[in-house]
Amino acid sequence: RSDTVEHDEL
Amino acid sequence: MNAFRLAGDMTHLLSVVVLLLKIHTIKSCAGISLKTQELYALVFAARYLDLFIHFISLYNTVMKLVFLASSFSIVWYMRRHKIVRRTYDKDHDTFRHHFLVLPCLALALLINERFTFREVMWAFSIYLEAVAILPQLVLLQRTRNIDNLTGQYVFFLGAYRVLYILNWIYRYFTEPHFVHWISWVAGIVQTLLYADFFYYYIMSWKNNVKLELPA
Predict the structure, then answer these.
(1) Domain with B121 in it
(2) Which of B94, B105, B159, B167 is a plausible cystine mate for B5, CB 3.0–4.6 Å?
């Protein structure tokens, strides 16, 4: 897993 | 982005438009809970901290700005606008909303995707959003004449949550690593809170009578 979590929802 | 997600965002946007229409055009916030609106402003402020740091898409940025601006302006209208604030039903909007904030923050510190400031704030916003509708639902129960716009506002908010769940189910089967337990569990809790309202809303619509929630 990368360092940032992808939150692509609003 | 799938159709459920887009439809969810659009109903969310529609709920805000309906509420702004009521406040801005009719100059009334009768039946609207200021406590819920304050919680939403806090939810968006906490969640969109990455607005200028982390770019996802133009759509994403614009929607975030719209939700931030609308939520804060609704709070402003209800507190400060000289005509609108007089229509606020303060006596019935008594839910102790401050008591929701600390438990959500504590939960976010304990359960998060990563123990960083932004991730804790993100989890906090998810937990708080799940329960932010409670003051509004309590106020609706105490309101004798729920006007159409208020009913529609809450209905669209609930529809947005239902569509987001469908979006997650879709993403679960189409995207290999799409598992976000925090938003799923909180999102399901949030949607269940609307179940009772949905029942009475649909019944009133079917029977063509005015919406009223039993106390």
Answers:
(1) 1-205
(2) B167
In a domain, B215, yes or no: no
Q: Could you report the per-residue pLDDT of B47-57, keeping only the tens digit for each?
A: 999 898 889 99
Q: How long a stretch of residues is chain A? A: 10
Amino acid letter, residue B98: H
Q: Which of A3, A10, A1, A7 is nearest to B71 (CA)?
A: A10
B65, two tokens = 């700005």
Q: A10 vs B67: CB contact, 8 Å cut-off?
A: yes
Number of domains chain B contains: 1
Task: State pLDDT tens for residues B158-211.
Answer: 999 999 999 999 999 998 877 789 999 999 999 999 999 999 999 999 999 999
ipTM of the complex: 0.82
- Mark yes or no for CB contact B54/A4 under 8 Å: yes
**What residue of A is the nearest CA neighbor of B13?**
A10
